[in-house]
Amino acid sequence: MAQIDLILTEHSPGEIRVNIVGEALPSGALSERVVVDRAEVDQISEQITRDLLDWANRPTHLRAGPPVRESIRRSGLALYQTLFGGAGDAFRDLKHRWVTDERYCIVHLDEELVHLPVELCHDGDAFLSETFLIGRRVAAARADRPTPSLAAGSPRLLLLVNPSEDPLLGDSAEEELREIRKAVREAGGIELQIRVGRTAQGRLLDQALPGAALVHLIGHQDSDADQPDRNGWRLFGRRWYGPSRVLRLQDPPRIVFANACASARAVDWKSSMPMVRAFLERGTEAYVGTWWEVGTPAAAAFAAVFYHSLAYGETVGIAMTRAREKVLEEFGPDEAAWASYILYGDPRARLPQTPAATGKPRRIARPLALVGILMAIGILLPSTLGQRAKDAGTAVEEPAATPSGYLTFESEPPGAAVWIDGHQRGATPLTLELDEGTHEVALDLSGHALWEASALVDPDSPQVIHVQLEEAPR
Predict the structure, then answer these.
(1) Which of 24, 175, 415, 418 is 20 to 30 Å apart from 206, CA to CA?
(2) Tens of pLDDT along 101-125?
(3) Given a cut of 90, is residue 322 above it in pLDDT?
């Protein structure tokens, strides 16, 4: 494993200082330093992040000219030459000297420079995001912060599925959920906790986020400088889970992946508190997000490979590289999603040891048909989805695994501890994936009588268990 630090700071009005620190640089010194014109750098960056990437998300039949990858390469080469000048030779030299696939690059940015798409600089051979495993660190996000705890047992992946209950997101959210679920089940060693629609709301998220090793959002993220109360993850009923609530978390998640449009495109860190900054200040080690809008199939494929790699013990940086390669391989040079994902935090972050980590990640096939696993919950999917899945054709066969199904627990009042076979799994409302068969379940809420029952899990029939808890005798 090798590491290089790229430090970008405001040198003076209108200038950017670029400092490259690493091992065995061409000069033989510990660093290379250049000062470049900010106006020219900003102009090229705007071309990449606005003109090229807006074009990249048009329907294919409305595009003209070379594939999007080639267009980004041209602008990325111009940005590389302008930003690094002669010091750019340091990158090329290190790339050839380091005999390792784990070439880490930590990009240190002033808060005024977070808009620069450094990952898309092209050195003539490849993009920096292909040469190095890149993580961003922003000066404004440095603070005294708690360290996420390592809970005993399997690391927990909290999936937040369409918390705004956007009907236009229903089918695509199910596709992404299915892809992630399949990838995690194949690798093993990660506990899935799923909150769907309005079961992923403000107070309930306050309870579910702490202690999670991983949090994945399938939904929307908004950023409105004129209305700060509308910043954050969009929830049901025109509400948002915003930075102020993140900053109050006592045990923040270790890795956050916000698979929402422009979830990491925070252009103003100086006068605002974007979600990515809030999570980093609370101690989250790695935050994955997007620069711009990402197409649904590519987003699902990227997420599946990402978690598959993490489950096998690979770092976040390597997992992102594998996911980019998968998107390019499957969707070709006209799909810009490979370039949209960026990482804030430490690219060397990884999950605690899982059973799969002793093996080597395998390629995972995408399904040819979708199955409506959430129809019975009645939140995300239209009633016709099951028939559409049958009409779609034959699905790719999944690896042999213990059959499982979904149970959703709701209680009145909410917030009751959910116990499954003697183990506490969370608080209501809660959706869990459980092995097929009979399970002993209990709901426990202070001031109320304990509720106990046996529940039969059927893989073909998700169930919702709603309980009216009775007050305990005084």
Answers:
(1) 175
(2) 678 899 999 888 998 999 999 988 8
(3) yes
> Are the C-beta atoms of 307 and 190 separated by less than 8 Å?
yes
Phi-psi region at 237: left, alpha or beta (left = phi > 0; alpha = psi -120 to 50): left
pLDDT score, position 362 = 47
Tokens found for residue 410: 């709701």
In the block, which residue shows the tokens 């239209």? 382
Which residues, other chains included, contact 432 with Cβ-Cβ below 8 Å and sequence gap of 6+?
Answer: 193, 194, 406, 407, 408, 409, 418, 420, 425, 426
pTM of model > 0.85: no
Pairing of strands 191-196, 156-161: parallel
Around Cβ 355, how many Cβ atoms within 10 Å?
14
Q: What pLDDT, on a 0 to 100 scale, did the predictor assign at position 399?
A: 40
Contact 146, 162 (CB under 8 A): no
Strand order in the sheet with 232-235: 221-222, 232-235, 239-241
Q: Are 347 and 286 in contact (CB under 8 A)?
A: yes
The DSSP output letter for 358 is G
Taking alpha carbons only, the member of 223, 208, 216 closest to residue 264 is 223
Place of tokens 């509400």: 239
Sign of the dihedral defined by the CA atoms of residues 420, 424, 430, 431, in that order: negative
Domains of the chain as residue ranges with CATH = 2-141 (no CATH), 156-370 (3.40.50.1460), 404-468 (2.60.40.10)
